[in-house]
Write a structure and sequence with these properties.
Number of helices: 5
Structural class: alpha/beta
Strand content: 15-25%
Number of strands: 7
Oligomer: single chain
CATH architecture: 3-Layer(aba) Sandwich
Mean pLDDT: 94
CATH superfamily: Glutaredoxin
Order of helices and strands: HEHEHEHEEEEH
């Protein structure tokens, strides 16, 4: 798959992994909530989650996770080379952090969501969702900014 196959309408793209203990679930849930807020306002936006951990994020694991996050969330995986190429295209960072147990490792990674429009490509990025200290970008802010870009683009 390429961006042409995936970005057929306004899309929020996020790179993360399903075994993430904190940031990825918060960001994916924030993006899902923003998509719902936008839908209430008449905007059709696709949430996309691209794994950075294809070793554990099999298509089945990814599908179960994205279905839980949002019924329309598209989960994408691929070979390590394909994921690296997608990550480089979005200028994201990720690296496996080795631990004592090879099955229970963490991934270091950037925490941006990218607003992509089919006709324009990249138009905006959003930092991570509010963390436990309250720092971050809310679903309301993502929805408001996205709506503004969509209104301007149409």
């Amino acid at each position: 798959m390429t961006d042409v196959d995936v970005i057929t309408k306004p899309t929020l793209v996020y790179f993360g992994y399903t075994f993430c203990p904190d940031v990825c679930p918060l960001d994916a849930a924030r993006n899902a909530a923003a998509v719902d807020l936008l839908a209430e306002r008449g905007y059709d936006v696709q949430p996309v989650f691209i794994t950075i951990d294809p070793e554990r994020d099999t298509p089945e694991v990814l599908a179960e996770w994205t279905d839980y996050m949002h019924p329309d969330m598209l989960g994408l995986t691929g070979s390590p080379e394909q994921i690296k190429a997608a990550s480089q295209a979005y200028k994201t960072y990720f690296a496996k952090r080795e631990g004592d147990d090879p099955a229970f490792y963490l991934m270091d990674h950037t925490v941006f969501s990218y607003l992509m429009l089919p006709e324009h490509g990249f138009v905006e990025f959003f930092r991570g969702a509010p963390n436990f200290n309250g720092e971050g970008v809310t679903e309301e802010a993502v929805a408001e900014s996205t709506a503004c870009f969509l209104d301007k683009a149409s």
